[in-house]
Amino acid sequence: MNEKEILEKAFEFHGHICWASAVGVRAGLAALKALGVQRTGTSGELHCIVEIGDNHGAQCFADGVQYATGCTLGKGNIEKAGWGKLALTLIDKQNEKSVRVSYKPTRHKLIAESTFMRKRAQGIPPTKIPKEEAMEMVKIIWDAPEDEILKIEEVKDHPYEDFGEVMGLVPCDSCGELVARPYLRVVGNKHMCIPCSGYDV
Asked: Right CATH number for 3-157 from 3.30.565.10, 3.30.1330.20, 3.40.630.30, 3.40.1170.60?
């Protein structure tokens, strides 16, 4: 897949077209290139830390990063730092190297003034805005020179201790639903899921 196809697939994955997921794709691809690695299909190769938080605009950045790098929630090789920033650190676990890539807001005024963002400010959902208007905004990011919109830091040594997966699912003695072993809680002589056990964690 070329980069444009990756962007289009990322929008499909994300569910709508937006500038923040486009930034995430570009940042993810730049991080892969800096480390000299390919998109991952397993949890044993790469780990990603995205610096977004919760309940703020531009969290869509993380979906772009996930699609570009292959680091996903389901594989357990991506996590949120919770700092509310559009940045990521990609870790090459096998070579113990990492790189941080962040968004430079040099073109952000153009994005904010786009027809798409004006409609979003009126409460119009992104899926109700014409594709042409959305892509006009995306091109502000996608067509920009990389060094104008991304800060790519130096690759650094990054020791990484991987504890691996704990295999096995066990039925909760209360509700009967399958639970991953590390999440079982002991209540008397029963092994229960967290909700049934009454424990907070």
From this structure: 3.30.1330.20
